[in-house]
Amino acid sequence: MTDGFLPIVVFAGVIAAFAVMSLGLPRLVTTRRPNRAKRSPYESGVTPARLPARSRFQVKFYIVAMLFILFDIEAIFLYPWAVAYRQLGLFGLIEMAVFIALLFVAYVFVLRKGGLDWSAEDADAPAPSTAAPGAATEGNGHAG
């Protein structure tokens, strides 16, 4: 009985050893020379904007996350159906056709409601400035 679990225990040991080495070896080998540039946050070369602590994400992010989960679950149900397709016969084919049709209707509904439309700009977002940096906004253009 225990012989069947031996490969699993060995595999778990190899995984644990790999995880410990992957996390521990760089700490032993690397040199630490922190400076201001290394400690600063990096976001694709852009200085990160500080948002208020109570700022909220747009609802659209949550909607897209829920839609992803919904359509991901569809894929999860398709795999076992594909494995058991021959045993289910015509009944299984009809059931999966109904399932896919219902998900397609949900997808069309989401498209029509604009749940996947990222091109619409928010009404509360500030309009981008068209003035050149350093350009005078009043008078004859002279500072003073």
Distance between the first and last residues' Cα: 90 Å
Query: Could you tell me the mean pLDDT?
Result: 77
Number of H/I helices: 4
Cα Rg: 28 Å
In total, the number of strands is 0
Give a short account of the largest sheet.
none
Strand content: under 5%
General shape: flat
Order of helices and strands: HHHH
What structural class do the secondary elements suggest? mainly alpha
Low-confidence stretches: none
Proportion of residues in helical segments: 55-70%
Describe the fold and architecture.
0% of the residues are buried. The chain has 144 residues and is mostly helical.
Task: Describe the protein's topology.
Elements: H1 6-29, H2 36-39, H3 59-83, H4 85-113
Keywords:
144 residues; mainly alpha; 4 helices
Q: What's the quick description here?
A:
This protein is mainly α and 144 residues long. Helices cover 57% and strands 0% of the residues.
